[in-house]
Every structure is written in C-alpha cells, then in structure tokens.
Recover the amino acids of this structure.
C-alpha cells in the first residue's frame, strides 16, 4: 500500500525541479557515501543554504531543505539539468548532490535513470516511525540532562518561537509551513543533546518521512492535532527529562497514526 500525492495535478507539477523526464546519462550510479556529521546536517536548510559552501554542498543543502519542508512530494521526478539550472551550478555538483541524497534514501534512482522522491509503502513508513519512536525521546531526554537552568530557559525560548510559527501555520491551514516549523522545533531540541551520531540517524529518517507528512497534513489538516509540544516545554522548564521524552514519544505516535489514516483513505479511494 502506498500513499498517493493528494494535491491537484497542477500543484504537483510545480513541485518538481526542472522537466519530469531524465535520460540514463544524467543519473549515474548511487556511489556516493554517507553525509557528514549530524550537527552540520542539522544546520542545513536553515538560513542561507549556500553560505560558505561549495557548489555541491549548496545544491545538497537546497534539495535537502526542500525535502525536509515537504516541498517535493512523493513520486515527484527531478532531472540533473533542472537541478543544475535552478541552483545555478554545472551538471557535476548537481549530480553529486543527487547521488548523496540517494545514498541517504531521500531520493531514488531507477534502473532507467529517473530521479524520484520515494513513495514509501505502509511497511516502510511503519519502520521509519518505529525508528523515530526509539530515537527521538532518547535525544529529547539527553537534551534536558545536558543543559543547566539557563540553558533550558534559552532553549525553551527558541522552542516557543518555533511553536509560535507552527501555530500561525495551523491557523492559516499552511501544511508546508507546519512541516517547516515542526521540523525546526524538533531539530532545535535534539541538537541541544550534543549527540551527533543519534541526530544524524534521526535526520536520515526525517528525509524519508517529511514528503509524506506534507501530504498527510494537506489531506487531514492540522487544526485537530493535540499539542504535545506544550508538554515538552513544561517538562523542559522543570528539568524533567522523563516528561519531555514522554511528550515527544506521544508526538511521534500521533504522526504515525495520521500516516496510517491517510494510507487507509488512499486504499479506499475509488480508482
């Protein structure tokens, strides 16, 4: 069972970078290795993605930020030429960036050479959310333990700002804005844990789930969602790692439930 992109065809088309067809000569093998440290990856997509970066890194950060924001829906096709043209680089750094994201399973290269945003099935999504449920509460608890009272207050202020952005997105029915603000909240919390290896694992999962979550929020909406971030903020203010971890676990579980609901809707839709 797969989750189809629920958006109108015209909107779906504008999400792609460049034309929707790609020849085998554009793709190349997926021989790129893993990306760099989790702390650097956590910062990718924040602010100017090209600041102080090589051409390859700039393209990688731009595509990565779009994936994390849900701007590229599952099933969308990209081209090396289109990526290069949009980001103002030559074919080589565009190809390297695509290979790097394919190595992270954020993009897929088909046997015919097409570059696609993957469409994970229900089993794959279940596994990804199981990974989130194991990793994210642990990172949240580590963050609380790593900070003194002043550090928790500073982090709390940053998280409330993210939550304010999230609230505005909810009020406006802005699914992409919701995904961006939600990702920023979780990234800020987990980065404070000072555990780059765990953070890198979480970010790898996010790259594979964020496009689907954009579709989920676009169909199901955001207004009825329970605010587990509030519980995390209360626990953080008290220095209560267990409460923060519990709130994050519930937040992840809510996301998994929404994905299951959309999968059920897609399976029962006519045609």
């Amino acid at each position: 069972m797969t989750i189809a992109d629920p958006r109108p065809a015209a909107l779906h088309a504008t999400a792609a970078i460049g034309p929707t067809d790609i020849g085998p000569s554009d793709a190349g093998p997926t021989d790129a290795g893993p990306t760099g440290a989790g702390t650097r990856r956590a910062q990718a997509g924040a602010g100017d993605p090209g600041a102080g970066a090589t051409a390859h890194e700039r393209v990688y950060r731009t595509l990565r930020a779009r994936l994390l924001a849900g701007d590229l829906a599952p099933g969308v096709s990209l081209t090396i030429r289109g990526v290069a043209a949009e980001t103002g680089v030559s074919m080589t750094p565009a190809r390297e960036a695509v290979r790097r994201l394919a190595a992270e399973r954020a993009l897929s290269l088909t046997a015919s050479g097409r570059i696609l945003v993957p469409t994970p099935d229900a089993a794959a999504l279940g596994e990804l959310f199981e990974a989130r449920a194991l990793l994210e509460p642990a990172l949240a608890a580590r963050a609380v333990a790593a900070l003194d009272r002043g550090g928790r207050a500073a982090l709390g202020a940053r998280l409330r700002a993210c939550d304010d952005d999230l609230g505005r997105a909810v009020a406006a029915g802005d699914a992409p804005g919701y995904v961006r603000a939600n990702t920023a909240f979780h990234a800020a919390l987990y980065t404070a844990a000072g555990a780059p290896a765990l953070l890198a694992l979480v970010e790898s999962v996010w790259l594979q789930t964020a496009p689907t979550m954009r579709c989920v929020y676009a169909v199901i909406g955001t207004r009825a969602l329970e605010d587990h971030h509030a519980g995390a903020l209360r626990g953080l203010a008290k220095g209560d790692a267990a409460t923060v971890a519990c709130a994050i676990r519930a937040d992840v579980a809510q996301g998994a439930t929404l994905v299951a609901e959309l999968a059920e809707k897609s399976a029962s839709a006519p045609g």
Residues 241-268 form the longest helix (28 residues). The longest strand covers residues 77-78.
